[in-house]
Write a structure and sequence with these properties.
single chain, about 240 residues, alpha+beta, NADH Oxidase, 2 domains, globular, binds flavin mononucleotide
């Protein structure tokens, strides 16, 4: 089945190289407008988006994200923040102790994420490309300080946007049967599908890296997860009033 929306959704790939062209202000407005039309837990709208243009701040974000030059160079960089401060500030009837519940952290993080995905899709529909930057969680303290985040607000990830200067081939996804189940969780039939997928991903990297890399999905994923366990994230979030119980 195909229609224009499905075509757009299925054409996704992250874009990390951009032309010099700025993103027109009316496009930025349209992207944020689309983001705001994401569904939001109980209409809470527990997120804030911060655009960062200042080159010095961009440079710091790029560095703390592990030297991701596209954070510095992209025409438009925004940080999607989970935000419970607005609830605390404007809902006087709230017993604000509940904001320390793990549930509220999940809720605000999901809200920010749904808005961000809508923003990226809207941008792609306007001819832009982009990439999320979870790397800013390498140093939540510094990332938060750069954009002056108060208590009960944390940066979930960044989003780089711009006009694509290159189009990577699409990265193969897991077979649908692995991630889409009927009635109950049953992964007994997954082994053979995962094996085939490992080979597919291996081929993707072989082709993309000119034969330099010969690595499977599981090996690559494990190495990435081990490289960035970010054990400081939990304590940092608790310091900011999240996930106290
Ligand atoms: C929450 C999140 C954080 C991400 N963080 C980064 C990042 O810091 N740097 C980067 O280059 N890509 C980042 N990505 C992009 C992923 O690496 C990318 O989506 C994945 O490899 C699949 O490739 P594709 O988007 O081209 O299909 C992130 C993606 C998500 C969803």
């Amino acid at each position: 089945m195909v229609n224009d929306t499905l075509k757009l959704l299925k054409s996704h790939r992250s874009v990390r190289k951009y032309t010099e062209q700025d993103v027109e202000p009316e496009k930025v407005k349209a992207i944020i407008d689309a983001a705001q039309w994401a569904a939001t837990s109980s209409h809470f709208q527990a997120y804030t988006i911060i655009r960062v243009d200042d080159p010095a701040k961009r440079n710091k974000f790029a560095l703390l994200a592990g030297g991701q030059s596209w954070v510095e160079k992209c025409p438009l960089f925004m940080v999607f923040c989970a935000d419970l401060r607005r609830s605390k500030k404007y809902w006087p009837e709230l017993d604000d102790e509940v904001l320390g519940n793990m549930e509220m952290l999940i809720m605000a993080t999901v809200d920010a994420t749904l808005a961000a995905q809508k923003a990226l899709i809207a941008a792609q529909s306007l001819g832009l490309g982009g990439v999320f930057i979870g790397g800013i969680r390498n140093d939540l303290g510094q990332a938060s300080a750069l954009i002056k985040l108060p208590e009960l607000v944390y940066p979930v990830f960044g989003l780089c946007l711009g006009y694509p200067a290159e189009q990577n081939p699409q990265k193969p996804r897991l077979p649908q049967e692995v991630i889409f189940k009927q009635e109950v969780y049953d992964d007994r039939g997954d082994n053979v599908l995962i094996e085939e997928y490992e080979e597919q991903v291996c081929k993707y990297y072989r082709d993309r890296e000119g034969g330099l890399e010969n690595i499977t999905w599981s090996k690559r994923s494990a190495a990435y997860m081990m490289a960035k366990p970010r054990p400081e994230v939990g304590p940092y979030l608790r310091e900011k009033g999240f996930a106290l119980k």
